[in-house]
Amino acid sequence: MTNYHRQSLIWGAVALSAGILLWSLRAVLTPFLLGAMIAYILQPGVEWLARHRTPRGLAALLMISVFALVITSVALLAFLVIQQEVPEFARQGPSLAAKLEAILKPRLAWLGVSYSLDLASVRDWVAAHLIASEQGAALTVWRYLGTSGNVMIAVVGNAVLVPLVLFYLLYDRHEAFARLESFVPRRWLDRTRDFVAEIDHMMSQYLRGQLLVVAILAAFYPVALALAGLSVALPIGLLTAFAVFIPYFGFASALAMALLAALLQFHDWYGLGAVIVVYGVGQILESAILTPRFVGERIGLHPLAVIFSLLAFGKLFGFFGVLLALPASAVFALALRELRRRYLTSTFYQA
């Protein structure tokens, strides 16, 4: 065995050991990965401020503040919707359960289904747990966080670690990349730089396109829902626009919230029909016009691959894993395409 092969085996073992270690620490890595993703989004703003003679540390703090303001605004929108819908559902829950029971029972009997749905118990449960409760949604959520130690630790840990990681990644970006490059074997350095540049180009195009799509949808959904007469059109419309960053699941969650709001407000089929029409037009606008024009096939993932990555990253890293799914899967898919290209040009394949 030559010295080259011996070193290759040693470094391969080191890489495998590092991979196993990272896998075992995947829960701890979540705030670091999330901070890296946010840093990538905010980096152009930091570079622009730095070029205009703003100290890099101050530029990083300014961009973090802007991002925190945006996230706080989205959280307040979600809180506003929940705060309004939960008490309303508490008041109307028993009557809605009774109406559902009245609709389903004759239809089940007509179909010859003898099984009886015990919706009366559902109605009683709603009355006992929602109407009798005079606490607001915010207090309920806070009590849940307080009694769930693991949830509270995760929230506090991410709230502290993510900004810290984000600041250092924005402040020390060039030094960090230089240190990483120093570990790359010199014969692979140029190819590694080209690969990283390809990833950067793909992700920057994708993020810019997604931001344009979000901006247009943030104008469409609130206006369309307001014209339909929905009282919470602004917060639900904006939440729907931001949900574009979580394909399929984000849209489905926003649609469910809008349907519930329409059901509680209108008490008839008009509200449900209007919401379905608005979201149908919005989905056509996004998938047939906006995404092909501004985003295109930047990531190049099959829809099934997108769903699988969302489920897999959500299982591994929780809610934040869903946010990390598409960027991480895009990088992984690009690496697989590069391996496939090298495999097809190798003597092993062509021999």
UniProtKB/TrEMBL annotation:
Segments crossing the lipid bilayer: 9-26, 32-50, 57-82, 151-171, 211-230, 236-262, 269-285, 305-336
Family: Belongs to the autoinducer-2 exporter (AI-2E) (TC 2.A.86) family.
Gene Ontology CC terms: membrane
Biological process annotations from GO: transmembrane transport
Keywords: Membrane, Transmembrane, Transmembrane helix
Tagged with keyword Membrane: yes
Major location category of this protein: membrane
Organism: Paraburkholderia atlantica
Protein name: Putative PurR-regulated permease PerM
Location of this chain's protein in the cell: Membrane
Membrane topology: Multi-pass membrane protein
